[in-house]
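Incident review: delayed structure delivery

Summary: a single-chain prediction request sat in the queue longer than the usual turnaround. Root cause was a stuck worker, restarted by the on-call engineer. No data loss occurred. The affected request and its eventual output are reproduced below so the record is complete for anyone auditing the incident later.

Affected input:
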Amino acid sequence: MTKDDELLCKRLKELAFNTFNKGFTTYSEFLNLNELNLLLLIKKELPPVEMDLYGGYEGAERKMVCFYQFTNDYDRKFPIHCVRITPRNVKFCDDLTHRDYLGALLNLGIERYTIGDIIIKNKEGYVFCNDKMCNYIIQNLTRIKHTDVRCTQDDDLMMNVAHQFQEIRGTVASVRLDAVLSLAFNGSRSSLSNLITAGKVFVNSRLIESNSYTLKEGDVVSVRGYGKFIYQEQQNQTKKGRYFVVLMKYI
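Output delivered after worker restart:
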């Protein structure tokens, strides 16, 4: 565990114990997959408080953790807002990528942990951020690459953001993680197995380091640098003993 990891674990424990000792609800900043895995690892070391995870919309990858007690359950409202970023002239705007949006935000001096997921749809960007960053982004983000942009707060979108999926159907030798990764990302089983041993594969936000991990229907698999998918279902077995499966890949 790195020094940064240790500091994060200490911070999460402090938040949980503040809730336990003082009774009020506490929230972390946005946690990435590695940090969410750390939270799961130290869960037994936390006091007996309730815990929820949320990133602004269903299916978010980067999430905040909320520690609360049943007595203050009604106070739970994650301090997350959605900033909608639109080009001022759609006709002449760049084809902006996730990296372009993130780079422009970080160039404003914004810390990465204050920003959650960034979704791009129809030449617009939707940035999920904490309540302290919302107005700052709106007031200061005016340009991404060569494109002039306009930013507005649009929290209604947090209830309506829907992922788009590509359905992938195919056969695998088994429902082991390494075999399904090969189908999902159209690569060799051996090369994708290296991603598992390199600590880049997460199932339901938990780091998985075993190639032989068996997936269950509904598992969300995230691979850093590649993307993520839902292991939807196993439908049947072929005469040659292979398994016919369905995946829903995030696009």
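Verification: The chain has a mean pLDDT of 91.
Action items: add queue-age alerting; document worker restart procedure.
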